[in-house]
C-alpha cells in the first residue's frame, strides 16, 4: 500500500459511509491524479474508472469527460496507446460544449499532446506544448505552465534533443506537424 493510499483510504471510507455518491466523484478524480503522478498506473486507472462510473450515474457531463480523458491517458501510458488516445479524443470533444470549463479543457490538451508523442507524433506534440507553455505563461496559469514544461522536457529527453531557441530563424514560415521544430536540435 502506498503512502497516498494509506492517507486517502480512511477518508474515502468515511465518504462512502455517508452514502452520497456524488460527493465521491471529485475526491476520486484527485486520488487518481495523485496516483498517476506517483506512477501507480493500475490504481490511478481504478480511481478514474470509479469516478467515471459515479459521474455517469449522476449525469455530470463535465466529470464524465474529465475522468474519461484522464483514464484514456492512463490507458495509453499502460501500453494501449491507440485505445487511450481514442478515449482521450472523445473526452476532449465532449468537454468542448461545456461552458466555463477552460481549465479542464487545457488539462486534456496537455494529456493529448503527451499521447501524441506516444503515437509517434513528437513534432506535433512539441509544437503544441510550446504553444501551450507560451499561452499559460502569458496568462499566469503557473500550474499548467509547469505541467507543459515538464511534458516538453519528457519528450525532449525521450527524443534526445534539447530545448534551444534559434532567434535567427524567421517565425513566419509555415510548419508541417510532421517536421521537427526549429526550437530543438539533436544532442551530441
Global mean pLDDT: 85
Helix content: 55-70%
Q: Which ranges are low-confidence, i.e. pLDDT below 50, for 5 or more consecutive residues?
A: 164-170
Helix and strand content put the structural class at mainly alpha
The helix count comes to: 8
Largest sheet: 2 strands, antiparallel
Q: Please give the alpha-carbon distance between the first and last residues.
A: 42 Å
DSSP, total strands: 2
Percent of residues in β-strands: under 5%
> What is the overall silhouette?
globular
| Main sheet: strand order | 1-2
SSE string, helices as H and strands as E: HHHHHHHHEE
Radius of gyration: 18 Å
Summary tags:
two-stranded antiparallel sheet, 3% strand, mainly alpha, globular, 188 residues
Amino acid at each position: 500500500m502506498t503512502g497516498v493510499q494509506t492517507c486517502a483510504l480512511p477518508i474515502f471510507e468515511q465518504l462512502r459511509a455517508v452514502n452520497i455518491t456524488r460527493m465521491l466523484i471529485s475526491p476520486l478524480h484527485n486520488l487518481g491524479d495523485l496516483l498517476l503522478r506517483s506512477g501507480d498506473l493500475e490504481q490511478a486507472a481504478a480511481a478514474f474508472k470509479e469516478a467515471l462510473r459515479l459521474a455517469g450515474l449522476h449525469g455530470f457531463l463535465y466529470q464524465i469527460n474529465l475522468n474519461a480523458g484522464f483514464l484514456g491517458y492512463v490507458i495509453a501510458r499502460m501500453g494501449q496507446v491507440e485505445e487511450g488516445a481514442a478515449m482521450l479524443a472523445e473526452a476532449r470533444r465532449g468537454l468542448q460544449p461545456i461552458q466555463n470549463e477552460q481549465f479542464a479543457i487545457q488539462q486534456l490538451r496537455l494529456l493529448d499532446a503527451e499521447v501524441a508523442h506516444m503515437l509517434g507524433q513528437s513534432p506535433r506534440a512539441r509544437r503544441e506544448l510550446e504553444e501551450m507553455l507560451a499561452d499559460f505563461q502569458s496568462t499566469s496559469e503557473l500550474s499548467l505552465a509547469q505541467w507543459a514544461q515538464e511534458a516538453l522536457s519528457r519528450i525532449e529527453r525521450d527524443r534526445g534533443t534539447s530545448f534551444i531557441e534559434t532567434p535567427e530563424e524567421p517565425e513566419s514560415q509555415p510548419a508541417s506537424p510532421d517536421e521537427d521544430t526549429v526550437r530543438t536540435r539533436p544532442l551530441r
